[in-house]
Design brief:
- By secondary structure, this protein is mainly alpha-helical.
- It has one domain.
- Helix content is 91%, strand content 0%.
- Helix 1 packs antiparallel against helix 2.
- It is elongated, with a radius of gyration of 19 Å.
Length: 89
């Protein structure tokens, strides 16, 4: 296994982790900013106001995009398994 093959695999895995984690993190960030803005405007400082909507938003995102995320991870795993003979050389 060459250095370029290892770097290529690492690059694929890091890119896939960004692609799969991005939507959930983006939803959590957006909801957090919106709730913080509402808290700053109304001056209501309660921890549960940020926690509960983030959990609900992240759960909805996983519910909507979960099958696509799982299929992407399975495709990457299948590709890695089929490339094993080429990587051993």
């Amino acid at each position: 296994m060459t250095d370029s093959a290892v770097l290529g695999l690492l690059q694929q895995m890091f890119l896939m982790s960004i692609i799969l984690g991005g939507p959930v993190l983006l939803v959590a960030l957006t909801i957090g900013v919106l709730i913080s803005l509402i808290q700053a405007i109304t001056q209501v400082q309660d921890v549960t106001l940020t926690f509960v909507p983030k959990i609900i938003g992240m759960a909805l995102t996983l519910l909507l995009l979960g099958s696509w995320m799982l299929q992407s991870a399975v495709n990457l795993t299948e590709q890695l398994y089929t490339d094993i003979p080429n990587l051993i050389r």
